[in-house]
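Service request form, structural biology core

Requester: graduate student, group of Dr. S.
Request type: structure prediction, single chain
Budget code: on file
Notes: please return the result as structure tokens.

Sequence provided:
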Amino acid sequence: MKTLLADGPSPLHPSEIEQFGRLAGHWATEITYHPADGTPPRRVSGEWEFGYALEGRAVIDVWRWPAPADLPAGGRTQDQECGLCVRIWDPRLQLWRFTFHGTARGDVVQMYARQIDDEIVMERAAGATLVRWTFGAVTADTFHWRNERSTDGGHTWHLDQEVHARRLP
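Core staff response, request fulfilled:
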């Protein structure tokens, strides 16, 4: 896997790569699901690992929940996820091409991402629904991520999921 992983950002586009590269490392997460039907939110622990890849031209991450410490004695549960994200900076379009592969349910999500003010926003249209995933409030040791959707062309948004993350040593 030496070819896959990289030690840092490519010198070709270092400031762009650092938009996601500053997340490189291991994070503990608290994930909250907000059902659209108004039932109470559900919380689960997780972990998120980010790293540079492909000669520093990409940032990949692995997202999983529940956290290993919260798995049952057998080590598996039907309600779990382990997914891989690949983010590649496209200098021609001046944005990120993003793909998420969710192994538990076979999800594949493709989005485009860009920095807007102090947030990184990933967007896509899924039929008549708009979806955006946003990294915000990023510090050296914490960040907040949210998953929102709109069914009215972006006039109103529903928060489906959010993650509060803290960096692990």
